[in-house]
Design brief:
By secondary structure, the protein is an alpha+beta fold. The chain contains eleven helices and nine strands.
Length: about 375
């Protein structure tokens, strides 16, 4: 068993985008999106934006040097972003977050059977936690504290604070510790906890071992609310059925945002020449569809083109011989490949012309 001390100091490996790196059941290392990232996808950012505005204004009042600095770089986005962040810090926005992080680590250490050193300012909160857990009859298994949970089907991973149970119940539940205001975050918390409850296995990133999920209540999760600095402890049960529905909706939204096949440039039709009008009707539509399909096939990555050859949707019929119905089937298959391989919808058919260097005239050689 892993040394309990490591649980309070080490973190699971992540890639440069903050995604968990997991060795999957196939043996391949894969980056999985964090549960918290997906949970925030459906958030209403209005309250958060207003809060940041208030913190920025407060910080600028406390730090006149930041106001002066901002006045000299109004056209420099990076500098202004940095000044805004400093103003938010100056307003004390991170102080509660830091205390919350400390409470997470202290309660985690206690549930792992350790005896951490506690500063006087945090003692009342920690005492409230210990008393609240005992009063509500919550049974915590040290092996299920801060566990990394993985769902390969939906490609996500996240660390659950506790998998525990009430003494009066047989099935375990997801328990999540929150040290801040939960009023505006309750929807995201429901998504987050539902994703934990629907994980496929527990993953030990140190040993790369996978453990089956315990028998778990997937209908209700429990929020442990320990607001920092208030010596207050409350438990709230959360609807995880609704949370899972929203989680799948959030994953659909993320997939929608990645779509690259939604637009195509429209070009003017060729003008009539020699008194012959341009082609019209069904024949013109077929010609345009064939031209569109051919251009999009050439624009697919090599791997996608090879796959199209192997899975040609109209067997035995070449592109020039296809009728309208067959062309529609082919175009639908091309759209699928463009989506799977994140290929641009179409290349720019009007690239800028390359200027040719004027030819250098050779000097005549006198004989």
């Amino acid at each position: 068993m892993t040394n309990a001390d490591e649980f309070t100091t080490a973190e699971a490996p992540k890639d440069r985008w903050g995604r968990y790196r997991i060795i999957t059941t196939s043996g391949k290392e894969t980056s999985f999106t964090r549960v918290t990232t997906i949970a925030k996808c459906l958030d209403d950012e209005g309250a958060l934006t207003a809060w940041k505005g208030r913190m920025t204004a407060t910080g600028l009042v406390h730090r006149n040097d930041l106001l002066v600095a901002a006045s000299t770089c109004l056209d420099d986005k990076q500098s202004l972003d940095r000044i805004v962040q400093q103003a938010i810090e100056a307003a004390g926005a991170s102080s509660k977050a830091n205390i919350g992080t400390a409470l997470h680590q202290l309660t985690q250490a206690i549930d792992l059977g350790q005896k951490p050193a506690i500063l006087p300012g945090l003692q009342a909160d920690v005492d409230s936690y210990v008393a609240g857990i005992t009063r509500h009859g919550v049974i915590i298994d040290p092996r299920l504290v801060e566990v990394l949970l993985v769902n390969e089907k939906y490609e996500y991973a996240g660390t659950a604070d506790r998998i525990a149970r009430f003494r009066s119940r047989k099935r375990k539940q997801i328990f999540d510790l929150k040290t801040g205001n939960i009023e505006y975050a309750i929807n995201a918390i429901a998504v987050q906890m539902a994703m934990y409850a629907n994980a496929e296995y527990i993953y030990d990133w140190r040993t790369k071992e996978r453990t089956p999920m315990p028998e778990l209540d997937k209908t209700r999760g429990v929020i442990i609310h320990l607001p920092a600095g208030q010596a207050k402890f409350d438990l709230y049960e959360l609807d995880l059925v609704a949370g899972w529905e929203a989680a799948k909706m959030a994953m659909d939204v993320r997939a929608w945002r990645k779509r690259k096949d939604l637009h195509i440039k429209v070009h003017a039709e060729a003008a009539a020449t020699d008194g012959v009008p341009p082609t019209t009707g069904v024949a013109a539509s077929a010609d345009l569809n064939q031209s569109d399909a051919l251009a999009r096939i050439y624009n697919l990555p090599v791997a996608a083109r090879e796959l199209l050859k192997k899975t040609w949707p109209v067997p035995g019929v070449k592109l020039p011989d296809m009728n309208e119905t067959q062309l529609d089937i082919l175009l639908a298959r091309i759209v699928e490949l463009e989506t799977e391989h994140s290929a641009p919808f179409m290349p720019d058919p009007d690239p800028l012309p390359v200027k040719k260097k004027p030819a250098v005239k050779k000097k005549a050689v006198k004989k």
